[in-house]
Design brief:
Length: about 250
């Protein structure tokens, strides 16, 4: 399956909170989680926030996960590192702007570790390989849109439907987005909208196979064998003189 989770940033969003949430959701766990917010769509004047987003990403500390103060740990294997670096390079080759390059990051004491630092690619288009494939690393792709409708169109044209988030202080904007976006798990000012266990994990489209979501009510249904009992009790003995040979109804 796979995912390409988009965060749509409206110009009326709470700026400080939104920037912090984007950085945390994109680079936490070194981007190695299916609900990582790997793609940001900056709408309208929110484009001007990119330099501040960049500074916050630069401030993250790359180190072994068991070291105090580490923000971004290593990738899981050398092969994962090579794949992430290859997708970063593919973005550069196809015309994206590499604002922050986490390749060749050096971590003292772990020189041979599988580390890739926070990376940001801007001017990304939906046709680029770095966009069409799930990177699964600490890489944030930045796209731009002139309107909410354009942003919704970008998200809905992507084949995956695992998670998405919109950052806004406008209730009408949030309602429009949650109604029109074709993604199974939607956050409003929540960057990684993984539902609580009483709800189902509702990834959809290319991010889902089968017909039943796991845990929540759907998970209970999965483990439930349905039984139907049909009963009829009469207050008196039968008054009909012949048996009914048609489909039985409650009246006979």
């Amino acid at each position: 399956m796979g995912a390409k989770n988009h965060g749509v940033v409206m110009p009326d969003a709470n700026k400080e909170n939104t920037l912090n949430q984007l950085v945390g959701a994109a680079f936490g766990a070194a981007g190695q989680r299916c609900m990582a917010l790997s793609t940001a769509i900056l709408v309208g004047e929110a484009r001007s926030w990119l330099p501040e987003l960049l500074e916050r990403a630069k401030a993250l500390r790359v180190n072994a996960g068991d070291q105090p103060g580490a923000d971004v740990g290593p990738l899981i294997t050398p092969q994962a590192k090579a794949r992430v670096e290859s997708l970063i390079q593919s973005g550069v080759d196809e015309g994206a702007t590499l604002l922050l390059d986490g390749r060749n990051v050096q971590v003292k004491g772990y020189e041979n570790g599988n580390f890739v630092g926070p990376t940001i690619l801007s001017k990304v288009t939906p046709q680029m390989k770095c966009y069409t494939e799930e990177i699964f690393g600490p890489v944030l792709l930045v796209l731009e849109a002139d309107s909410l409708d354009e942003a919704v169109g970008i998200v809905n044209k992507n084949p995956y439907g695992n998670g998405t988030a919109i950052f806004t202080t406008n209730g009408a904007t949030a309602r429009k987005y949650t109604h029109e976006v074709e993604v199974g798990q939607v956050g409003v000012n929540v960057p990684i909208p993984v539902p609580l266990p009483m709800f189902s994990f509702t990834g959809s489209r290319g991010s889902f196979r089968g017909d039943t979501n796991f845990y929540g009510k759907q998970g209970i249904y999965f483990y439930t064998q349905i039984k139907t009992v049909t009963s009829q009790w009469k207050a008196e003995d039968a008054t009909l003189k012949s048996p009914a040979v048609t489909m039985p109804t409650m009246g006979r």
